[in-house]
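Usage example:
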Amino acid sequence: MGKKLMGRRDFMKSSVAGLGSFVYLASNEKKQEKKQGERKFIYRTLGKTGIKVPVIGMGMIQPSNPALVRAALDAGINHFDTTAIPAVQENNLKMFAEVTKGRPRESFIIGVKVPSPTDPATGLYKEGVTTEAFLKKFDFSLKWLNMEYVDVLYHYAVSRKESAFYEPIMKAMEKAKKEGKTRFLGISAHMNVPEIVQIAADSNFYEVVIAAYNFKQKNYLQVREAIAKAASAGLGIVAIKAIRGGLKEGEKPINPRASLKWVLQDPNVHATIPAFDTFEDMIADLSVMDDLTLTDPEKEDLKRAASSAGLYCQGCGQCVKQCIAKLPIPDLMRAYMYTYGYRKPSIGRELVVSLGLPGHICEVCGPCPVQCLNGWNVSRKIRDIVRLRDVPSEFVV
Amino acid sequence: MRKGGGMRRKVCFFILLFIALLYWAGGIRTPSWSSGPGGNPSLFPEISRWKRSGEIQIFFPRNLYNYIDGGAELYLKYDFQELEVAEYLNDKKASVTVEIYRHKTPTDAFGIYSQERLANAKYLAIGAQGYSEENILNFVLGNYYVKMNSFNTGPEDQEVLVIFAKRVAEKLGGNGSLPSIFSSFPKEGKKENSEKFIAKSFLGYSSLHSGFTADYELSGKKFQLFVIEGEDQNDCRNMIQEYLQRTGNLGKRIEEGHFTVKDPYQGEIDFCWKGKYIWGALNLDEPTIRAKYLKLFEEGLPERK
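Running the assembly step on the lines above writes:
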């Protein structure tokens, strides 16, 4: 309450200022630099877990190339994270087991996520998600890995508070830890990141958090603040989507090295896990550790990329708190996107109708207090899109 | 009276304006009585004793991560175009989620399917190919990759999923087939259902575009064969040139024929180049078997040129 909200203009100012404020490394950082063969490595400690990891790890999204994982291990990367797409995960973990065969178990850190059936519309777990089902899936992961334990077991892709504290899953995770099947418990936040990171910080349950964090996020200041709180509460912080986050379709990252540096200049971020899929990218990502300082051209690249306006609702949820009528604004923005962005008004209409909105919308509240981080005139877009309710469905595809 | 008529004209004007806007947005469906082309029929069939729940969700390349966070990038590599998701419920509170991914080409759809398919699953003749496990049934058909997950379906789980899969396949139409280039792969020792299509950065090198692979096992030796289909001879020459540079194999003459290369990450690789094809073997250290398979492969390829 009473917290001043940031408008688009303020955001753009802070965005540029934010880039400036991240320029310098914490003074004690360089003392932690170590040599790994010829390459300089920077290690940070993953919060109270005490695990030391290089700031560059590896996110494995494609199971097909064991040579790449082997090369990463040989290069000194010891922190690995796996995908949660069920079938890919199985192939992925089996491949990882094959590659790490013969290597001491304690020589690498592996994080595993267990997905549970979620209602795609609400982000909440479906009725009947149980402790037993979660543990069964996790046991399969251990079997595929051919390992006794993982280092971090993650509660996967949590976007709602109710899910973060979903009792059957918390019980399952607790049991897995008690039985020595995982050393630590974590949570991953891709959407609604500030709130989930904050929840993790206050939970006294989660020990590591994976959080989407990049300079293109409209709410990156809130993400940064939440990460700082979580780090000071002793959580290990792993940043994801550092390079590709916020990119449009077919858009190539402007400067992957600069993007990684930007994230890693936040001393509260302990590690990143870029999903490189070529040897060239692996070498480029590792080279970030030679010097985390952003060069002037890199700063320019980031400023240029940060200033390009986003076209899509990022689901930060800020507007829902501000709206007097408590309208489901992200859903309405999605309907707007379907209708005008993708020219699918039937889907836009179906979504609008399914929301069960009141008769008069954005007409009676007076000046709209919603300040969208994208800078959109939200009430105008809503008034536009809700008109679809009045068009008979047979006129729309 | 005049005033009322003016109001009606205004209302009519705004309705027409709104319809014009929708038309501009590409969303007006030609009425069923018209002789013009119809719109897209729904991809999701009616299934008796099951009811569709909620809206159909649709995702595109730029917001796919909203649905499969942490996995969207893999789909994007396979030229993902659009995903539609519907959930079905029955009166016993069981649910089936049907995800229909549309990719740019059938090869892309097969590619992502091949990344996810499980070697030990039960394979089914649905679409070009499908497989099922507990609570899962996935299949590929033309440009579509269909994934279905069930929940609380009890002992009838597999039957339920097969019914859904057959109905969805009917809606999509046709059967499709796996990429024909796999018929060029030697049959001896090939592991069933091990074929894959890697859409980008084959073998971990961005210069190598895409490639097709299959796993083999012969006399206890496990290895892989691969083929890269370039656009033309020149494309293959450029790929090889860059690959040799990246792997430090400088000074080799780049002409059609046989290459043995020391790859710093993958050991010794044998490959051949002819026309728009590059084919080779990975993890096969037995020279005689290597030579035999490269020859067999070559025999399978010429008819494709």
